[in-house]
Design brief:
The protein is α+β, with helices and mostly antiparallel strands. Helices cover 30% and strands 29% of the residues. It contains 13 helices and 27 strands.
C-alpha cells in the first residue's frame, strides 16, 4: 500500500513542499521569489577569462556571480546526476575536449547554484528533463535509470529508447517511464524536441541571455517526484491546483485523480503535523527513539555528524549497544540528509566497534539505506578511527541556509531564523488566528532589525493581512524580542 504523500502550502511570500512517508517528513522544498534556483536553466553565455591552473573558464550568464565551466571533457554522469541518480547507459561516443577563448559565446546549463563565495557551476552538455525521459541535446547516449531494477523491464525500455531517440541526440529513460505506455514516452520526446527548437531561437540574441528556464519548484516536484509511489498530492491553493492539473493533463492524465485541493479551515501543514516536524529542522541535536542522539554541524568545508548513545539503555552489552545505536543513527542521518538537503563532504563519527564484521555490516546497511535518495553519493568507507566518510551531491544551498541567516549578534559564528522565514511565520500566524482579531487594533512586536525589514520590503503583505481580517495592524521594534521571533498584542 502506498504511504507517501506530497503536501503543498502556498502563501503570498513562499511555496513550501513536504514529502511524507507514513506521516513522517522525509523531504522538504522551499521556494521564494528572491531565492529561486537556477539549476537546470540554459544560457547563452560569454567567456570572460580562462584559468589554466584550474583548467576552467569563468563565463557571464547574466547573474550576480559568473559561472564556473571546467575546460576538460565533462563526464556524462556529472550532468545527468542532476536529473536522475545512478543512471546506467551505453556510451556511443565521447566528444573532443572543449576549446574556448575569451569573449567566445557558448551555450551552458547550470548544474549547481551559487554557494557561499562560489558562483554557479555550469556545463556545456545540454539536457532537457521531462517526466519520462531526459533529452540529451549534444550527446548520443542511451540509458535507463538503475532505479528500474527488473531486468526484463529495463531491456524493454532500453529498446524503446533506441527506437525513439532523435537523430544526433541522446536519451535517458527515467523511473516514471516504468509505468508509462511506449506511445506516451515517444510523445514526450517529440514535445521536448519541439520545445528545444523554439528555445534555441532565443540564442540569436547577444550573450548573456536566458534560453531555457526550468519550471517553478511545484511543477518540478510533480515532474520528478509525483510517481506511482505517491498516494496523493494535496495543495491548498486553487490556482496552483489548476496549474498541476493542466500540466498532468499534458504529460500524465491518469495521475490527475491523485491531486486533491485542500480546503479545510485548519492549515494543511498543521493538519498533517508538518509544522511541528519542521521546528526541528534547524536543531543541531536530533534525538533517536532509543534515547541516543546525533549532533549535526555544518561548516564551509564539510558537515560533521557525531553519534552518541545518550540515555539509551536498550542493550546491556557495550558492543551490541554501540552497534544498535550506530544503525539507528545511520537511518536518521540518511533522513536528515534528504530533509535538510545537505551536500558536500560528510564525516560521521560513529561509536567505536570492536568487531570488524559489525563495521562491515553497518557499511552495507548504509549503502542500502541511501538507495531511496535521489542525490548521488560517493562512499569512502569507515576508517580505523570509526569515521564514516562520504560525499553527497550538492546542487543548491541546504535548507538550513534557506531558513536561517548569519546571526548579527555573534558576527556570523552562529545562525538565526532568517527575516524571510520570519515573514512566513507571521503570515501563517495570522492565517490561523486572524479571524479572532477582526475589528481590533493589534501591534506586531519584533526586533528592530526585523521591523525595519518588514516596513521596507513587506508593507504590502502586512496591508493585505490587515485588509483580509479587517484589523488595524502596526509594527513596533522592541529590543526585548529575540531575532526571528515576534509578538502580537491587542492595543
Amino acid at each position: 500500500m502506498k504511504k507517501k504523500e506530497i503536501l503543498v502550502n502556498v502563501s503570498e511570500t513562499e511555496t513550501r513542499i513536504a514529502v511524507t512517508d507514513n506521516g513522517k517528513l522525509i523531504e522538504f522544498y522551499l521556494e521564494r521569489a528572491e531565492q529561486t534556483s537556477r539549476v537546470g536553466n540554459i544560457y547563452k553565455a560569454k567567456v570572460l577569462n580562462l584559468i589554466s591552473g584550474l583548467k576552467a573558464a569563468f563565463v557571464d550568464i547574466g547573474a550576480e556571480k559568473n559561472g564556473f565551466l571546467p575546460l576538460n571533457e565533462i563526464p556524462f554522469e556529472e550532468f545527468s546526476e542532476l536529473f536522475e541518480s545512478e543512471v546506467e547507459m551505453e556510451q556511443e561516443y565521447r566528444p573532443e575536449e572543449i576549446k574556448l577563448k575569451e569573449n567566445q559565446e557558448i551555450i551552458v546549463q547550470v548544474t549547481k547554484d551559487s554557494y557561499g563565495i562560489k558562483g554557479p557551476r555550469v556545463t556545456s552538455y545540454i539536457s532537457i528533463p521531462g517526466r519520462y525521459v531526459v533529452l540529451l541535446i549534444n550527446a548520443r547516449n542511451v540509458g535507463v535509470s538503475r532505479k528500474i531494477r527488473h531486468r526484463r523491464e529495463r531491456d524493454t525500455l532500453f529498446k524503446i529508447a533506441k527506437q525513439i531517440k532523435p537523430q544526433g541526440m541522446g536519451l535517458i529513460i527515467r523511473t516514471a517511464a516504468a509505468r508509462a505506455r511506449p506511445e506516451e514516452i515517444k510523445k514526450e520526446v517529440e514535445v521536448l524536441k519541439r520545445e528545444w527548437a523554439r528555445d534555441l531561437e532565443k540564442a540569436n540574441a547577444p550573450a548573456p541571455t536566458l534560453i531555457y528556464q526550468e519550471p517553478d519548484a511545484l511543477i518540478k516536484t510533480v515532474r520528478d517526484l509525483f510517481n506511482s509511489e505517491i498516494r496523493n498530492l494535496y495543495v491548498d491553493s486553487e490556482e496552483e491546483y489548476r496549474k498541476i492539473i493542466r500540466y498532468l493533463g499534458r504529460v500524465s492524465p491518469r495521475m490527475r485523480s491523485r491531486v486533491k485541493l485542500y480546503s479545510d479551515p485548519i492549515p494543511i501543514f498543521q493538519r498533517y503535523d508538518i509544522e511541528d516536524q519542521l521546528k526541528n529542522i534547524l536543531e543541531r541535536k536530533v534525538w533517536l527513539p532509543s534515547g541516543g542522539y546525533i549532533v549535526i554541524d555544518q561548516t564551509e568545508a564539510l558537515v560533521s555528524i557525531d553519534v552518541n548513545t545518550g540515555k539509551s539503555s536498550k542493550e546491556k552489552q557495550a558492543e551490541r549497544l554501540a552497534f544498535a545505536t550506530n544503525l539507528e543513527a545511520l537511518r536518521e542521518i540518511v533522513r536528515q540528509l534528504r530533509l535538510r538537503d545537505i551536500g558536500g563532504l560528510v564525516v560521521v563519527d560513529l561509536i567505536d566497534l570492536e568487531k570488524k564484521e559489525n563495521t562491515e555490516r553497518l557499511l552495507r546497511e548504509f549503502r542500502s539505506l541511501i538507495r531511496e535518495d535521489r542525490a548521488k553519493y560517493k562512499i569512502g568507507g569507515i576508517s580505523e578511527f570509526g569515521l564514516l566518510e562520504f560525499t553527497r551531491e550538492r546542487s543548491r544551498a541546504s535548507i538550513t541556509y534557506a531558513l536561517s541567516e548569519p546571526c548579527p549578534v555573534c558576527r556570523g559564528r552562529g545562525r538565526t531564523i532568517s527575516r524571510q522565514s520570519a515573514v512566513g511565520y507571521i503570515e501563517r500566524w495570522f492565517t490561523k488566528n486572524g479571524k479572532n482579531l477582526r475589528g481590533k487594533m493589534v501591534e506586531l512586536q519584533t526586533s528592530p532589525r526585523l521591523a525595519d525589514f518588514l516596513s521596507m520590503h513587506y508593507a504590502d503583505t502586512l496591508a493585505n493581512i490587515a485588509k483580509k481580517f479587517n484589523l488595524i495592524l502596526r509594527i513596533r521594534g522592541d529590543y526585548a524580542v529575540p531575532e526571528g521571533d515576534f509578538k502580537v498584542v491587542i492595543v
